[in-house]
């Protein structure tokens, strides 16, 4: 086999995309976004620049793919609640892991969360949001949420991302890591209650818990479930409490 054929197979083989992502992630980690040029990635991965465009489309798509590649490794550290595990403890652990990932991978974190565009979310960030929503559903089903699932998830996202970017803006030697703990507990105090809401008063929290477990009943038709879910969502919305 001649050298030209070897190069062609190396650029079109099944491992070419993975090799490019690995090399791009290393460039991003050590040199930031400025280091992630298609020329540098092609050189590091041993491919021609057109191969990158063929596999990823453009540089923005490459950045999204690199962010997803790095974040998937982070998501592997997370798992759904195990039987008997307190969902609030799991949420604390998830916050700490999120902040730790952001501080250890500032460039990837910035690609994921640092360029918000309405209606567009990076694939990696979308996976993180889905995971967080699963956490909120567990909390709602246990009767521990005092706000809607969506508002709880948004407060966690705002607090976690804000904490990471605030700490990254500080000189590394001067970072106040306790800030993350204080912010975490402030957010948790806003969205959760220590007593399951069906043991306490509050129609809003009861609606949140019922809506989270509505799919478990067979007593309603699909259209009835959708209608009841809409009513419960209206009760659970801010200002939905009735006297």
TrEMBL record:
InterPro entries: Homeodomain-like_sf, HTH-type_TetR-like_transc_reg, HTH_TetR, Tet_transcr_reg_TetR-rel_C_sf. Residues 14-74 form the HTH tetR-type domain. Keywords: DNA-binding, Transcription, Transcription regulation. It comes from the Bacteria. GO terms for molecular function: DNA-binding transcription factor activity; transcription cis-regulatory region binding. Residues 37-56 bind DNA. It holds the Pfam family TetR_N. PROSITE patterns: HTH_TETR_2. This is TetR/AcrR family transcriptional regulator. It comes from Propylenella binzhouense.
